[in-house]
Design a protein that fits this description.
This protein has 16 helices and two strands. It is an all-alpha fold and 446 residues long. 49% of the residues are buried. GO terms for molecular function: transmembrane transporter activity.
């Protein structure tokens, strides 16, 4: 059934989906802001090094992980809509307080507690969309993550006018180099980023009101008809060995853990790398390169929504992995030295990373039934990746900024290996499901 036909049949389901899209715009804004404003947050808490302030990202990822775990439990007791409404309320309130922290401990705590409701929004939103649309989810899933990345694309543009310029100190050495004193001449009173965080919080409040209105009009939350497992499907699924199902779960979780590491490292630490690498971007220019990444990330996803119908989820992910590989071929050897390579590589990386997350659920639905527990487990591993990889890159941000590029390449290679294994598992599962009935009939006749 076409997307238009699904929308025509389930009009109010689609209205709820539109509100979910707006929630994910807020989610994207909240996710991107700390990375874009990281050097100004360093001023807010008087952190002596970038390494120390960069730990806000792993702290938020830790809260995100707990939020995803909580969501996996809460959805069994409460309506998806109530969980999302509560989480959005908390996230909107907490994000407004970020630039007012004046200690590192306070900033870490704030980011950790922001991570919990955003983890519920992330996990709960994806699971609810699967609940709403079932096997018809792929185009809606791509659209959902388009709106999330649209928020991430807008965040640097909102932030840029309020970022403090870097203070330069020209060296008198023979090399005549320029050193950047990131925030050493500024005080927290000079900060303008509270306006940025206030704008995002206000927009989130508007979305919250819209969500409440739609919920009060119609509270019904029935699953999509395709979510009901038929007897034929149960028999086919029963023929798949348990060890194969375990391998599917393991390699899917590994794939998403590693890919999320790549996505979060690039999305959150790209501006910091641009400032600290040999090219020495100023903060305004670094914000624009982050916008380029999120811009290609966002708008290629629109293209992916239509491409999905032509080539399918599996081929779309393969195409994405090829683009990520091409980006790393440019970035790893040349991105630190040649500006055009950095801009080009970042743009290609944005295109390549854009549709993987949304396509993985469509890929899995081709050969397994993705239930809420499996979806939640995938999203929990996404949170682990978002915690671990930025932690490693942030630790070496000041002394070895090239670690940013090396981690990107490593994640790229590991993702390719995991996805090749998943394709082999898919082929095996489909063969078992299709061949087994014929063998059974033949045996009975004999």
């Amino acid at each position: 059934m076409s997307v238009y036909s699904e929308i025509k049949i389930h009009k109010f389901r689609f209205l709820k989906t539109l509100v979910l899209f707006l929630i994910f715009v807020v989610h994207g804004l909240i996710a991107a802001l700390p990375g874009v404003t990281l050097l100004d947050l360093q001023i807010a808490v008087n952190a002596p090094t970038v390494e120390q302030i960069s730990y806000v990202i792993p702290f938020r990822a830790g809260g995100h992980t707990i939020g995803s775990l909580l969501n996996a439990i809460l959805v069994h007791f409460f309506d998806h809509q109530l969980c999302l409404f509560t989480a959005l309320t908390a996230a909107v309130a907490l994000i407004a307080t970020v630039p007012w922290n004046r200690t590192l401990i306070g900033m870490y705590s704030n980011m950790f507690f922001i991570g919990i409701p955003t983890g519920i929004l992330d996990s709960g939103g994806n699971v609810w969309l699967l609940h709403l649309w079932g096997k018809a989810n792929p185009p809606f899933m791509q659209a959902l993550h388009f709106f999330s990345t649209f928020g991430k694309f807008v965040a640097p543009l909102i932030s840029e006018p309020f970022l403090l310029p870097l203070q330069k100190e020209v060296s008198t050495s023979l090399a005549n180099t320029t050193d950047y004193k990131r925030g050493k001449t500024y005080t927290p009173d000079d900060l303008k980023i509270p306006y940025t965080y206030g704008i995002v919080s206000l927009f989130g409040l508007c979305v919250l009101i819209m969500f409440l209105v739609v919920y009060l009009i119609k509270r019904d939350n029935k699953p999509h008809p395709s979510r009901e497992e038929k007897e034929h499907d149960k028999q086919a699924n029963a023929r798949v060995p348990k060890s194969t199902n375990a391998c599917i779960i393991i390699f899917t979780c590994l794939f998403m853990l590693i890919f999320s590491g790549l996505e979060y490292v690039f999305g959150n630490l790209l501006p910091t790398f641009a400032v600290l690498c040999d090219l020495k971007f100023n903060k305004s220019k670094a914000a624009f390169i982050a916008s380029l990444y999120y811009g290609t990330f966002t708008f290629f996803r629109v293209f992916a929504i239509f491409l999905l119908d032509l080539i399918g989820s599996q081929n779309l992910i393969l195409f994405d992995l090829i683009l990520i590989t091409v980006a790393n071929v440019l970035l790893v050897p040349f991105g630190n030295r040649f500006e055009w390579c950095l801009w080009t590589g970042v743009a290609i990386m944005g295109c390549g990373a854009s549709s993987v997350f949304g396509a993985i659920f469509g890929f899995l639905e081709d050969f397994v039934n993705v239930k809420s527990k499996f979806a939640s487990l995938i999203l929990i591993n996404v949170c682990f990746g978002a915690f671990a990889f930025p932690l490693i890159v942030g630790k070496y941000a000041d002394t070895e900024p090239l670690v940013f590029l090396y981690i990107s390449l490593l994640c790229n290679l590991l993702c390719c290996i995991c996805f090749i294994v998943l394709m082999c598992l898919k082929r095996f599962v489909l063969k078992v499901k299709n061949v087994a009935p014929e063998l059974h009939v033949h045996t009975v006749k004999s």
